[in-house]
């Protein structure tokens, strides 16, 4: 049984075929979920680890035992998927191979604005400009598919119960994900990539609010006028009272209760 055994499936019949390469088929993992083919893996689930036996010259899955965390760690390490040990910065909330979450304290930053359709009443943002403006504290949740951008009303490390707010940063969708446009996405998902993710949010050119984003703050005038006012009067702190709690949005309308940092992280943002 030398070589890699490839699993082939056709017409509900499963066969193994040796493919060479110096490896041997040693184990199989079976996953159990809700009944019905093609259903997403949600709710109750179970996994078992099985040895491989040879019958008539072919590999056969033998009886198994429940898959343990020790098994998962072993195979993740062998597959090269184990995350290397890292010393985490104090602002990191979650560091996982599939997710990185951290908070950013409030601060005044140099922001880049190139409003696509400036109105006559704008004082500073009526032209392409780079200007100092205050930002509230933020929560960033990076996964392999998206970057969630949320504001925090209090300038301190959040807990799982901390309520998240819509970010006032332009180019963020109403669902909290960043609109990447032509911004280069970081190729890695680790501590070293945090600066790249932050640059994508705070150092790119802001051109317009995304659909529905003006409804993410209270008061009149919308986001562009809010940023214009902050720039014109050289504000040093962001008016967090104008932020709205982040909620699930259905057809452009907020539904349910405000989501917490813990809920956003558990849901993969």
In helices, the fraction of residues equals: 10-25%
Strand arrangement within the widest β-sheet reads: 6-7-10-11-12
Average pLDDT across residues? 85
Number of strands: 15
User: How far from one another are the termini?
Assistant: 44 Å
The coarse silhouette is elongated
Main pleated-sheet profile:
5 strands, antiparallel
Please tell me the total number of domains: 2
Helix and strand pattern: EEEEEHEEEEEEEHEHEEH
Q: What is the CA-atom radius of gyration, in angstroms?
A: 25 Å
Q: Which residues sit in consecutive blocks of at least 5 with pLDDT less than 50?
A: 1-20
Share of residues in strands: 25-35%
In DSSP terms (H or I, runs of 4 or more residues), the helix count works out at: 4
Q: Overview of this structure, please?
A:
The protein has 269 residues and is of the alpha+beta class. The chain has two domains: 5-78, no CATH class; 92-266, no CATH class. Helix content is 13%, strand content 32%. Strands 6-7-10-11-12 form a five-stranded antiparallel sheet. The protein has a three-stranded antiparallel sheet with strand order 3-4-5, with no helix packed on it. A three-stranded mixed sheet has the order 9-8-13. A hairpin with a 2-residue loop joins strand 4 (46-55) and strand 5. The chain is elongated, with a radius of gyration of 25 Å. Mean pLDDT is 85; it is low at 1-20.
